[in-house]
Write a structure and sequence with these properties.
Blueprint lengths: L1 H12 L2 H40 L2 E4 L8 E9 L2 E9 L20 E4 L1 H9 L10 E5 L11 E6 L2 H4 L4 E6 L11 H27 L3 H13 L4 H37 L15 H28 L1 H5 L10 H19 L12 H34 L3 H12 L1 H28 L9 E7 L5 H8 L4 E9 L16 E4 L2 H7 L2 E3 L7 E4 L14 E6 L5 E6 L4 E5 L9 E5 L12 E8 L2 H14 L6 E2 L4 H39 L1 H9 L4 H37 L11 H19 L10 H5 L1
Helix pairs in contact: 1-7, 2-5, 2-7, 2-8, 2-17, 5-8, 5-13, 5-17, 6-7, 6-8, 7-8, 10-11, 10-19, 11-12, 11-13, 11-19, 12-13, 12-19, 13-17, 13-19, 13-20, 19-20
């Protein structure tokens, strides 16, 4: 305890400069802790989303007892988000159950909407078609996953939803039907954020804990020479590093709380939350208040151990030992793992993420990143010694000799930026894999609506909706389940359309003749390739006493090319409307086609809702929940990149400034013997830029290997991200430019000989 109190007395009684360094350590640590707390809070925010979504999920049964309350759920796309509607037909039973956020269930003609829908009704009056009735009230926060959610409860009558409605038993499940981020993807997201933020964060906190390391080490060596024990020296050192880290942790938690209050009200792109969702949990507080001071203690032990073991060598500035080589072993091990998986991508049987691979891939990537950091001092030392012996340039010789003597100090300056480039490559890999979720890429967009849910008048009106360029009907052949004998019965989907309608729905169509049943053949698809001409397929028409019509597969063909994810792609027959009975086909879908422009898609969806508000709409080829998840993940990765950039730049600024302050006596001595300020600035620049360039080159190579191994084992369609290389190279060039600009002002113009006398 005496040594700890001695450390506090030295901390606050060793002059203004020492106190400034202490508060700089605390300020730097607070920035790191704030980023750490934000990263730890992200899963908590996502879990709060899912918990509220699960609590409002209706529990239903397919049976419809007399007097039961019926509900019908609809999740329709609205742009790139989901518009959730729950139609409620109140009965005499089940009315006591109310979802979170509502005091009562809506009656016929009543509509309860979320605040975002309330605003949307004013901004886009066409949305009114989705909500038949009058707005009665707002849904409370307890019934919404996030503040911007599009959600509504629509009261209706029993006869309108009796065919598709289900009897209500209550509300609430233990799991969300559509989580904000899929659990398997959440694991990938945590790994990506760990690489983007936590690795640079550990370096940054270590840099903050090692501010003025040389001066503090000499002070500790003096105490050791005065008789303080080895453990006593470590306790004295802990008084400064641990107290600064603890103060920084408290300040960082306060900064995180303030950021949560501001950001929860403004939100991020595709991610909104309530302030209580991002509140600091006990686990986050414990990790920050215990973990950060513990890290500062272990980092500070290195300098204290050196001062305690060899105090005379520290005071007389003995030549430091050569950097340890064990870091290179980690790099070689990590590269061996990721390179092995990359090699499998060149074979016919690439590796997957099943079994041991699920563990080895993240281990290999982490070992590569950690080994990259620990190997840089060794590489810098070796290169500096070789260049210093062979060069005849005074500037380069001075720079390399200093790097040879102090390779670790340069690495504290550049490591954060090197890790940022390495992690950016991994982030690219995560985004590439997520892009495999189907996106609308064709120039047209198809919409499918069950024909059974439409009246003839609605079917006619939907064909005339503004923005619809073509319409048709697809119907599936009938299978008599009672006559099945265990064999697989062939089925065929028919497209009921004219040649003009077909040509409007596909890229091209050749050989079509109106008035004839013809076979549809897409050379780029295997649909219907196993069917032989002359095969007859039954189709059912009309309700009740249904009529069966047999249609024979002809030999005459229409060769066409469908758009990706087209509703026409599954059809093998083109049937003209003139050859069909007047009754409506069973098991049929009304297909509409429009441009895929977002505004046009929105216009068509609004038009469909105005005609048939309860009808279920399927956007062919578009996974709205997947797109929402991708948007959330992209937002979180962007936040991680920003935090990683802030941490990397902050680590560079702090370490470069601290190094410049510690190097003032050496710079003064060089300038006193005649070196010009321009020469000193060039030396300072070369000392940083050369190891930084080596680190960035290694980060680019190792990062691309790690990214490719991740993509290969993840089953991505893209193994080698060549398109992302120029962006990373440009980012690396920008990092070098920032490093050069940051080192130029570090050599002052004023010469103070007092610095040498003090040293």
């Amino acid at each position: 305890m005496k040594e700890f109190l001695l450390g506090l007395r030295l901390l606050f009684g060793a002059g203004r400069g020492n106190r400034i360094r202490f508060f700089l350590m605390a300020a730097g640590g607070s920035l790191g802790v704030c980023c750490l707390a934000l990263v730890l809070t992200i899963p908590q925010i996502l879990d709060a989303h899912d918990t509220r979504a699960a609590a409002r999920e209706p529990r239903t049964t397919s049976a419809q007892p007399a007097g039961s309350t019926l509900v019908l759920q609809r999740a329709d796309p609205y742009g790139s988000v989901t518009f959730n509607r729950i139609f409620v037909a109140k009965g005499t039973k089940g009315t006591d159950s109310t979802p979170p956020g509502l005091d009562e269930l809506p009656g016929p003609g009543e509509v309860f909407v979320s605040p975002r829908v309330h605003d949307l009704l004013r901004e886009q009056p066409a949305v009114k078609g989705l909500l038949p009735g009058r707005e009665t009230g707002l849904i409370g926060a307890a019934g919404l996953a996030h503040p911007d959610e599009l959600f509504a409860y629509v009261g209706t009558t029993r006869d309108r939803i009796a065919d598709e409605g289900r009897a209500l038993k209550g509300f609430g499940y233990d799991y969300a039907p559509f989580p904000a981020v899929d659990p398997s993807t959440l694991t990938t997201l945590r790994f990506a954020l760990g690489s983007l933020v936590l690795l640079p964060l550990g370096i940054f906190l270590s840099v903050c804990a090692r501010l003025s390391a040389a001066a503090r080490t000499r002070r500790l060596a003096s105490l050791r020479l005065l008789g303080v024990s080895t453990r006593g020296v470590q306790r004295v050192n802990a008084a400064e590093t641990v107290v600064a880290a603890l103060l920084g942790a408290v300040l960082g938690l306060i900064e995180c709380w303030l950021l949560n209050q501001m950001m929860s009200r403004t939100g991020l792109a595709s991610l909104r939350w309530y302030p209580e969702d991002g509140a600091l949990s006990a686990t986050t507080v414990a990790v920050c208040l215990i973990g950060c001071p513990a890290l500062a203690w272990f980092v500070g032990r290195a300098g204290a151990r050196e001062a305690a073991a060899s105090p005379l060598a520290v005071r007389r500035t003995a030549v430091p030992r050569r950097p340890a080589t064990w870091g290179a072993l980690l790099l070689v091990t990590g590269l061996g793992i990721v390179t092995g998986y990359c090699v499998t991508g060149l074979t016919d049987h690439p590796a997957d993420s099943i079994g041991p691979n699920a563990f080895l891939i993240p281990v290999g990537i982490l070992l590569t990143g950690l080994g990259l950091v620990l190997t840089l001092p060794l590489l810098s030392h070796a290169l500096a010694r070789r260049l210093a012996r062979s060069t005849r340039s005074l500037t380069l010789n001075l720079a390399m000799r200093r790097n040879e003597v102090e390779p670790g100090s340069k690495m504290r300056v550049v490591t954060g930026l090197v890790l940022l480039v390495f992690a950016a490559s991994l982030a690219q890999g995560v985004l590439i894999q997520l892009e495999q979720v189907t996106r609308p890429s064709a120039p047209v967009q198809d919409y499918s609506v069950p024909l059974a849910s439409l009246t003839p008048e609605q079917q006619r009106d939907l064909a005339g909706v503004q923005g619809v360029r073509a319409h048709a009907v697809t119907m599936d052949s009938w299978v008599d389940l009672e006559k099945l004998d265990g064999t697989l019965q062939e089925q065929a989907t028919a497209l009921i359309a004219t040649c003009d309608q077909l040509e409007r729905m596909v890229r091209r169509a050749e050989g079509c003749r109106d008035g004839k049943v013809m076979r549809l053949v897409d050379p780029n698809s295997s649909v219907g390739s196993d069917l032989t001409p002359g095969t007859s397929f039954p189709y059912r028409f009309g309700a009740g006493k249904a009529r069966t019509l047999n249609i024979t597969l002809p030999s005459e063909r229409i060769v066409y090319s469908a758009y990706p994810a087209s509703a026409v792609g599954n059809a093998v027959l083109l049937v003209p409307p003139s050859v069909l009975p007047a009754a409506r086909p069973d098991s049929a879908q009304l297909v509409l086609t429009s441009s895929s422009a977002p505004d046009r898609v929105r216009e068509v969806l609004d038009g469909i809702a105005a005609v048939a508000p309860i009808a279920e709409i399927e956007l062919i080829g578009v996974n709205i929940q997947g797109l929402e998840q991708i948007a959330v993940i992209e937002t979180l990765l962007a936040v991680g990149m920003i935090m990683g950039l802030v941490i990397g730049v902050a680590a560079f600024i702090v370490a470069a400034t601290d190094r410049a302050v510690e190097r003032r006596p050496q710079v003064t001595a060089i300038m006193l013997i005649g070196a010009r300020a321009r020469t000193v600035r060039t030396v300072q620049c070369v000392q940083v830029v050369l190891p930084l360039s080596i680190g960035l080159a290694l980060a680019l190579v190792t990062g691309k290997l790690a990214e490719s191994s991740y993509l290969i084992t993840g089953g991505s369609a893209v193994y080698w991200d060549v398109a992302g290389t120029p962006l990373l190279a440009l980012a690396a060039a920008g990092v070098v430019a920032v490093a050069i600009a940051g080192t130029l002002p570090l050599a002052g113009r004023r010469i103070d000989p007092e610095l040498i006398r003090r040293d």
